[in-house]
Specification:
The chain is 74% helix and 0% strand. It is mainly α and 180 residues long. It folds into two domains: 1-92, RNA polymerase sigma factor, region 2, helix turn helix motif (Rna Polymerase Sigma Factor, Chain: A, Orthogonal Bundle), CATH 1.10.1740.10; 106-180, Winged helix-like DNA-binding domain superfamily/Winged helix DNA-binding domain (Arc Repressor Mutant, subunit A, Orthogonal Bundle). It is globular and about 55 Å long.
Length: 180
């Protein structure tokens, strides 16, 4: 998800087409990342919009992030998400809307929903930093450098944390499989 430095330079000059291109490039990954943390569509949309609002504020204040745009955006997203969780301690995931016809819930859809629920359960059992590195690497699809920037760690520490997280995920999933 590297952005062309020329595009970034144009964005810093407040070029609307460059800003739109950055928005289009980063919105899906930021949204997925925030949705996995919050479990709420509207909250994830609001927080993602706030990330871009902060980005624009920095540009218009002539203080744009100079390096690691993806790391900067995801660090802002992480901080906003933590603040949101502190404000709303208990929150359930979005329920399936009532207007969805039951015949659209095919076997594959149900299976996918069960897998997603199992992944969420497993992630919830991991220590916070391990869960965070997996979300950043696999849900937000950040590279090692950007992940290190978001977490305030060096790349080797991120690799080690990611290895421990995947090992723990496998262990937890194996235990769940044995219990079922």
């Amino acid at each position: 998800m590297d952005i062309d430095p020329n595009l970034l330079g144009r964005a810093y000059q407040r070029d609307e087409s460059a800003l739109e291109a950055i928005f289009d490039a980063y919105y899906p990954a930021l949204y997925r990342y925030l949705y996995h943390h919050t479990g709420h569509i509207q909250t994830a949309e609001d927080l993602t919009a706030t990330v871009f609002q902060r980005f624009l504020e920095q540009i218009y204040a002539d203080k744009p992030p100079i390096t690691h745009l993806s790391g900067w955006l995801f660090r802002v997203a992480y901080r906003l998400m933590v603040d949101d969780i502190r404000r709303t301690k208990v929150r359930d995931s979005d329920a399936l809307p009532d207007d969805v016809p039951t015949e659209s819930l095919t076997e594959q859809t149900v299976f996918t929903q069960m897998q997603t629920a199992q992944i969420h359960e497993t992630l919830a059992q991991l220590p916070a930093r391990q869960r965070e590195v997996l979300l950043l690497r696999y849900i937000a699809e950040l590279d090692l450098s950007a992940t290190a920037h978001v977490l305030g760690m060096n790349i080797n520490a991120v690799k080690a944390l990611q290895h421990r997280a995947t090992t723990n995920m496998k262990r937890i999933l194996t235990l769940l499989g044995e219990l079922l």
